[in-house]
UniProtKB/TrEMBL annotation:
CDD domains per the UniProt record, alphabetical: FYVE_ZF21
Protein name: ZFY21 protein
Gene: Zfyve21
Domain FYVE-type span(s) in chain numbering: 35-90
Entry keyword set: Metal-binding, Zinc, Zinc-finger
Example GO molecular function: zinc ion binding
Natural source organism: Pomatostomus ruficeps
InterPro entries assigned to the protein according to its UniProt record, in alphabetical order: FYVE-type_Zinc_Finger, ZFYVE21_C, ZFYVE21_C_sf, Znf_FYVE, Znf_FYVE-rel, Znf_FYVE_PHD, Znf_RING/FYVE/PHD
Amino acid sequence: DAKKLVRSPSGLRMVPEHRAARSPFGLDEPPWVPDKECPRCMQCDTKFDFITRKHHCRRCGKCFCDKCCSKKVPLPRMCFVDPVRQCAECALVSQKETEFYDKQLKVLMNGATFFVTLGTSDKSELMVCRLSNNQRYLVLDGDSHYEIEIIQISTVQILTEGFTPGGGNTRAIGMILQYKIPGSDEVTQMKFTAGEDFSCNKKLAASWLAAMHKATKLLYESRDQ
């Protein structure tokens, strides 16, 4: 998908030519709190004057002093080219999201192998599941081929094993995905299960499912914006 470089008050952004092509994990730039409505820092309550200047967090749009909004952190969910100024709270969230974009997104795009069961069928098909390069589709390839638009996914339930009442580690072994068919209110369900044999790398499947769990959280946040 073609992209263009645009300049906003917050900085340079590389965005898709068409809004419909944007990543489903993306966030819109927030409106800035107007200067006239912000005589004091919204974190430490320091009064602004000629020495103490106002700065807006690029993620939340609130107004802070330099001390409370000094960090410049990458913000890929808003397509910024360079790290941008953020308040301490937002910077922490953005830093955690950086791991998703640097590592887990690549895991999703590389894909993993699962047995996939459609609806209430008692038959499953071995398929390679991956996220498309534009992040907009979940692509499944086997004897059959499916492309599920990410924005049509309604729920994702990660299936785990290994939990004990006294504690202990759990391991992701599959997921149940529900999504709407475009142009219809009909909801379809798919169940993904990691294979038990050595040809299906269970460790890779578990990593892919963990990345999908994180992606789902970002997807819900984007919808709630």
